[in-house]
Design brief:
The protein is of the alpha+beta class. The chain is built from 18 helices and 26 strands. Helix 9 packs antiparallel against helix 10 and helix 15 crosses helix 16. The longest helix has 28 residues. It starts with a helix and ends in a 14-residue tail after the last strand.
């Protein structure tokens, strides 16, 4: 090492460059022989032998001739030369070839005596050059992206836009201007919101503001944008933040027209909702009401549905009767009638819809429909609601027009389009089978109800007494049921009351009910015996005629005595009679409870006698009036007592209607009831009620 140091120094005093933080080398003039190199130089360019010819020492450097030329230039001119950011390829034994960058300074130096040389100072600038190149590349890439964005924004309906970190628009968008017709002055900052549908602005602002605060990697939103022709279409809006580190410097986004996809999605959703609305409903009126609430507000602002009576041989030119059974209206608009009926002349638009079996579609200025464009009930509403269009769509079930749907759009909403009309038709087609089942159920139920009423007699006229009977079929069954009531007078002047229930909701149950009722009437007229004995004989007859049948029953005999009105009764597994006094007190008559008929054959049955105060009300009823699923019967009977006492002062008709209206919500069984109101005055001297 000492010898090497002496060789490098050569007595020239060049040791002063040893600690220099940059590379320093000296070469002689005569033959470019290397005479000095400091540690930094050797670490970068290799440990070259001093006094070796430079061309030999640097034989591995590709560009050595270029640098030797620079040495000759300095020696010939005497002027220093500086080369900046020069690229040098160096092959290192441990890492292989590398490109590094240096700034070289070459100047003449005296080596003692007449000998001259060149001093080369090298400063490595690889990091600076690499960083500058990276910055330049990023700038070029950003320039290309900006040019691409501008080109993309100038073609097609796709809209590309840029906003500040707070979400306000900061650059023009040719695509936005082309689609919306907004100028740059109208579009900039928050002006773009003016092109968003008024109903969508608040949700859009809320969503966009939240994105500006929370900075998600992707913001996506769907809203309607007004096109240059004034129409609105749905656009999918997407934006991403441009970040420098963790800081948002801008947002870049696009708007894509998805009206077609949105329409298809809405069609599928509405068809699914219509199918779901009609799937689990039995009653036709409820089904049509559910359908009206699917149409409003997604397709229309108002909808009414008329049901046509079943008439397969409907005369073509006869007036047409229709029942309004369902309606729906968007909040904020005038109410539509919910029920009613209307007769249409043969030339009315409604009758033409039924006759043609095709939709009729009309548009008009808001609130100014042409006369006769819709049914009278709907036409007045079209004016008050500022409707701009109406469509009448026939509902064809099993080849017959069973109903007509009338739908309207109002105010600023676009008029109903042909695609809207087609969608309503599709909804009705999808619901065909449920409609068919509901219509058949409705017809069967009406037939069953007519049959039931034919089997149940009208109460007789009894001097001094008010007698009212009610029958309501099960809302969940189309067949006739086994509930019955009866009331008739005996030869001795007493009035017999009976109510009962045969198990089942079918034709056999109704037949058995009718036969038992008639048999009980015959047994009661045959002998003047206690009511319990009459029920015992009925039970014996059932053993022979109806071996597997069971039934419940109340049989009561109402008559006058010297003390007033008296009731003798016997109960066979049936809910007990209810007595309500004029002063508003009520109690159940539970003194003669016996097993139901058809269980314990030919067993004695008890009777009970109850004095009845003047003006009181006696109620016999079947379990459909009181029973609720999952509820104990005692709770149900207590509710009946409490509610009946609140109606004690009402006329008998209102008394019965009040019980049916207020107690039967949610009930799924038939209901039969018979009520008797006694005269409020005392009996005459002859023991008769005052007439």
């Amino acid at each position: 090492m000492r010898a090497a140091r002496q060789e490098r120094a050569s007595g020239l005093g060049l040791e002063v460059f040893d600690p220099a933080p940059v590379g320093v080398s000296v070469s002689s003039v005569r033959d470019h022989r290397l005479v000095y190199a400091n540690a930094v130089y050797r670490s970068v360019f290799g440990d070259r032998s001093i006094r070796t010819l430079a061309r030999e020492a640097f034989s591995d450097h590709v560009e050595r001739d270029y640098y030797f030329g620079l040495l000759d230039q300095v020696l010939s001119t005497g002027e220093p030369v500086t080369v900046t950011e020069a690229s040098v390829a160096i092959d290192y034994a441990d890492t292989g070839p590398q490109e590094r960058f240096f700034t070289f300074s070459l100047s003449e130096i005296s080596l003692g005596g007449d000998e001259r040389g060149v001093l080369l100072v090298s400063v490595e600038v690889t990091e600076q050059v690499t960083a500058a190149r990276r910055i330049k590349a990023l700038a070029e890439e950003r320039g290309r992206l900006l040019q691409r964005y501008r080109k993309l924004g100038s073609v097609g309906a796709e809209m590309v836009w840029v906003t500040a970190p707070d979400g306000s628009v900061i650059e023009p968008s040719p695509g936005w201007e082309k689609v919306t017709g907004q100028s740059w002055e109208e579009f900039r900052e928050e002006g773009w919101l003016e092109a968003v549908h008024p109903d969508d602005r608040e949700p859009t602002v809320q969503s966009w503001s939240r994105a500006a605060r929370e900075v998600p990697p992707l913001w996506e939103h769907v809203h309607r944008i007004r096109r240059a022709d004034g129409t609105y279409r749905h656009f999918n809006v997407r934006a991403v933040p441009v970040l420098e580190g963790d800081t948002v410097v801008e947002w870049v986004g696009s708007c894509t027209d998805i009206e077609q996809e949105w329409q298809e999605d809405q069609r599928r959703e509405l068809l699914d909702r219509a199918a779901a609305a009609t799937a689990d409903i039995t009653r036709l009126e409820e089904m049509l009401t559910a359908l009206a609430h699917v149409i409003v507000p997604d397709l229309a602002d108002g909808c009414i549905i008329y049901l046509l009576p079943h008439s397969p041989d409907r005369p073509e030119h006869a007036p047409l009767l229709a029942h309004l059974v369902a309606s729906a209206v968007r909040p904020g608009l005038p109410a539509l009638p919910e029920h009613g009926e209307e007769t249409f002349a043969p030339d009315n638009v409604f009758a033409r819809t039924v006759r043609r079996r095709r939709p009729i579609h009309r548009t008009f200025p808001p609130g100014a429909p042409a006369p006769g464009v819709a049914p009278a009930e709907a036409e007045a509403w079209l004016v008050s609601a500022a409707a701009n269009s109406v469509v009448l769509v026939p509902v064809i079930v099993d080849g017959t027009v069973a109903a007509v749907v009338a739908a309207s759009a109002c105010g600023g909403r676009p008029p109903l389009s042909t695609s809207d009309v087609a969608l309503i038709g599709q909804m009705l087609d999808h619901a065909h089978d449920p409609f068919s089942n509901a219509i058949e159920y409705r017809r069967t139920q009406r037939t069953a109800l007519a049959m039931q009423h034919s089997l149940l007699p009208e109460p007789p006229t009894v001097p001094g007494l008010q007698i009212t009977a009610r029958y309501r079929p099960s809302p969940a069954a189309a067949e006739v049921g086994g509930d019955w009531y009866d009331c008739f007078r005996l030869r001795d002047g007493a009035t017999m009351l009976t109510i009962g229930d045969v198990a089942g909701h079918d034709l056999p149950a109704a037949v058995t009910m009718s036969q038992l009722r008639n048999m009980l009437r015959g047994l009661a007229v045959d002998r003047e015996e206690p009511v319990g004995d009459i029920l015992r004989r009925l039970d014996t007859a059932m053993e022979t005629l109806y071996d597997d049948e069971t039934a419940t029953c109340v049989l009561a005999r109402l008559e006058t005595t010297e003390g007033g009105w008296q009731l003798s009764y016997s109960v066979a597994g049936h809910p007990p009679p209810l007595l309500v006094t004029p002063d508003g007190r009520g109690r159940l008559l539970e003194g003669a409870a016996n097993p139901l008929l058809g269980v314990l054959r030919d067993r004695p049955r008890t009777n009970a006698v109850e004095p009845l105060p003047p003006g009181s009300t006696l109620l016999l009823y079947t379990d459909g009036l009181v029973e609720r699923p999952g509820e104990h019967l005692d709770v149900s009977l207590d509710r009946l007592c409490r509610h009946a006492t609140t109606l004690a002062g009402e006329p008998l008709e209102d008394f019965c209607e009040g019980l049916l209206t207020d107690l039967t919500a949610g009930g799924k069984d038939d209901i039969a009831m018979i009520a008797v109101r006694l005269p409020s005055g005392p009996l005459t001297a002859a023991g008769r009620p005052p007439v």
